[in-house]
Amino acid sequence: MSEQSLRFRKSVRLQERGRELIPGGSHTYAKGEDQYPILAPGFIERGLGCHVWDVDGNEYIEFGMGNRSVGLGHAYPTVVRAVETALQGGSNFTRPARIEVDCAETFLELIGAQMVKFCKDGSDATSGAVRLARAYTGRDLVACCADHPFFSTDDWFIGTTPMNAGIPEAVRKLTVTFRYNDIASVKDLFDRHPGRLAALILEPSRGDDPVDGFLHEVQRLCREKGALLILDEMITGFRWHAAGAQKLYGIEPDLSTFGKALGNGFSVSALAGKREYMRLGGLEHTDRPRVFLLSTTHGAETHALAAAIATMRTYQNEAVIEHLHRQGTKLRKGIAEAARRHGVDGHFKVVGRPCCLAYATLDPNGKPSQTYRSLFLQETIRRGVLMPSLVVSYTHDDTAVMKTIEAVDGALAVYAQALESGTSRFLVGRPTQVVFRRFNNGDGRADMTTPENPQAANNATMGQSETRLAATS
Ligand SMILES: Cc1ncc(COP(=O)(O)O)c(C=O)c1O
User: Fold this and answer.
1) Which pLDDT band, with edges at 50, 70 and 90, does 441 fall under?
2) Cα separation of 218 and 470, whole Å?
3) Is the pLDDT assigned to residue 464 strictly greater than 70?
4) Is 121 a pocket residue for ligand 1 (Cβ < 6 Å)?
5) pLDDT tens digits along 231-246
6) Residue 446 pLDDT exceeds 60
7) What local confidence, expressed as pLDDT, does residue 1 receive?
8) Which tens digit of pLDDT belongs to each residue from 153-172?
9) Are 358 and 467 in contact (CB under 8 A)?
10) What tens digit of pLDDT does each residue of 276-311 get?
11) d(CA 306, CA 304)
């Protein structure tokens, strides 16, 4: 019997069924079968803290945490209790629930914006921000940062990726790009499209800090040219700083978007910003047309807002951010030492900010490699760690960090042998792939990535600074 059928019997069966029923076999591409080697858990049964159990009963220390949506840990008790209490009182009514105001107060007190609207997914929030900016400025063009891999599932962004089938060219032409920490590229955009840019959207950071006041300079240019600045804090929010990277970098965007860790895995996101803009989605103004800002049936489910309040309280009362940075720093140090010990430090690099680390796998020629990534994933999974990235949570304690470093040490011993004699003796089955590829026939035109799989963007950024490698962490 093969190792796959021995260790992952139920997973394999579910994957076969999933492939028939769900395009891609999974409802989120970044969790899909093609993102992992074949010796990997196909489906998760449950999670607790920083541990998960797959459907075959195998246990793992997990990094990645639901595409970074779980900041405190799986099934975090205070969040679960708040959700249970809310559910007892019903989840959705004909008029707004009282908790909508409570959650808005808690959020605005923490982040410091003037108004907020909650929704379900990060994509709702970023797309709402783009619509609002277009309505406010009366302009059609939007600029997003080319070094940041994901902003929305909507056409205005997906049209910029290689997976743009089904998106009309007329829509694709309305999104243009600039580079992070490259103010000349921003100036160039404004020069090339005078009076046409509604907004610039970017993440405040993807590991590399803004250089030479980049964010402030972008803001100055936006003000001068009449465009809005949108900071997408989907990942940086509740990781860089409890009040967002905007607080850390001392910048007040016109609009900002949050999601992911805001609800510790529950579905809640937020579009926040200055009253001057947000009010256009309201009922009071008469000076401008109304904007359909965000309004969905499930947008303010009580239990999701209860999860958000409980999560925000934890960040307010406990040193969550410090913990994430501390544990990430220990991980990075331990893994770097292991890489040096095995002589692979030129081929395996931990990148990013300690609260949100990723890694790059480079082949014998120093080229980013999905095959080596697959081997590394396979060998860490064999040792009880599931690490598509190195994203820690509040429940990653010292024991988890120590066990992970041991597992990585073992995996890198195999990695070192593979660098000497090739991966074929070691990797079982086909390698992983990047999400944003145009075809499934392995034509390799993979110049975009998901936040979980930084490899493809590494292709684009190799030869540049190491922090650029972190751009997709
Ligand atoms: C920076 C960023 N913005 C927006 C999104 C979209 O969020 P969601 O997947 O919740 O729609 C993501 C998702 O990965 C993201 O990483």
Assistant:
1) low
2) 21
3) no
4) yes
5) 999 999 999 999 999 9
6) no
7) 79
8) 999 999 999 999 999 999 99
9) no
10) 999 999 999 999 999 999 999 999 999 999 999 999
11) 5
What is the pLDDT, as a whole number, of residue 437? 85
Nearest CA to ligand 1 atom 16: 150
Tell me what pLDDT residue 436 has: 85
pLDDT in tens, 364-417: 999 999 999 999 999 999 999 999 999 999 999 999 999 999 999 999 999 999
In this structure, which residue's CA is closest to atom 9 in ligand 1? 122
* Separation of CA 57 and ligand 1 centre (Å): 30
- Residue among 31, 120, 152 to mutate when testing ligand 1 (max atoms within 8 A of CB): 152
Q: Please tell me the residue having the least CA distance from ligand 1 atom 8.
A: 122
Q: What is the CA radius of gyration of the chain?
A: 22
Q: Which two tokens stand for residue 266?
A: 């529950």
- Is 29 in contact with 435 (CB distance < 8 Å)? yes
CB 375 within 8 A of CB 414: yes
Measured from the CA of 120, which atom of ligand 1 is nearest? 10
Assess whether the C-beta atom of 123 lies below 6 angstroms from ligand 1.
yes
**Could you report the per-residue pLDDT of 382-393, keeping only the tens digit for each?**
999 999 999 999
Listed in sequence order, the residues at least 6 apart from 271 whose beta carbon sits closer than 8 Å to its beta carbon are 116, 117, 119, 124, 125, 128, 129, 132, 255, 256, 257, 278, 293, 294
Q: What residue's CA is closest to ligand 1, atom 13?
A: 150
Residue 258 Cβ inside 6 Å of ligand 1? The answer reads no
- Other beta carbons within 10 angstroms of residue 415's beta carbon come to 23
Select from 260, 391, 435, 453 the residue to mutate for testing ligand 1; criterion: most ligand atoms less than 8 Å from CB: 260
Is 467 a residue whose pLDDT tops 60? Answer: no
pLDDT of 457 higher than 70: no
Structure tokens at 288: 């401008």
Mutational test site, ligand 1, from 29, 151, 240, 296, max ligand atoms within 8 Å of CB: 151
C-alpha separations of 413 from 73, 317, 379, 389 in Å: 30, 42, 10, 19
Please report which helix (H) or strand (E) contains residue 272, including its range.
strand 269-273
Atom number in ligand 1 closest to CA 153: 11
Tell me the CA–centroid distance for residue 233 and ligand 1, in Å: 9
In this structure, the residue with its CA closest to atom 3 of ligand 1 is 151
Q: Does 203 sit in the ligand 1 pocket, CB within 6 Å?
A: yes
- List Cβ<8 Å contacts ≥24 apart for 277-284: 277/132, 277/133, 277/136, 277/228, 278/114, 278/115, 278/116, 278/117, 278/132, 279/115, 280/132, 280/135, 280/136, 281/117, 281/132
- Round to whole Å and give the CA distance between 193 and 187: 10
- Residue closest via CA to ligand 1's atom 4 equals 151
